[in-house]
Fold this protein.
Amino acid sequence: MKRAGASVGDDVYVTGTLGDAAAGLVLCQQGEGGLSNLTDDELSYQADLIERLNKPVPRIEVGMALRKIATACIDVSDGLAGDLGHILESSSVGAELYAEAIPCSDALHKFAKTNQHNTELDLALYGGDDYELCFTTSKDQHTVIQKISEQTTCKITRIGKIIADKGLYIVEDAHTTEINQMGFEHFSKS
């Protein structure tokens, strides 16, 4: 599967949930200083997030099933915005994403409630290392995608659509806003 090939009208999908690995990284960077004060629930969801960072699950079976129906595909290693941005650039198209459709785990919901600096949406869009798949298909493939999800026991969520206007847009509360397509840059100077 290639990055180029997305067409206007295609649906945009992702596997699994997004943002967990980025939240796990934040937790690792914060260190273990306050672990003695955490409840069992806090320890559990934090362990889940760190596990997603340290042991990502490759979506090989889903990827194999998508070979004949995905018009474009990429793994989400640098954040959804950045990696989908590669598809958009290679395909010379744009995309609208539906904020409420972007899948986040319960652990990420809990993390976001206690962390003032990172929202679920920001972590899903700009965090990296989830290694989920982001792909596009023609609209008529929705039923096939549902069957692939059931057969592989992997959650697959429709999160948007490909549009003619170049750029990446987020639709939230009936407002459409262009967002940054820059994902995590491994070799940038900080």
About this structure: The radius of gyration is 17 Å.
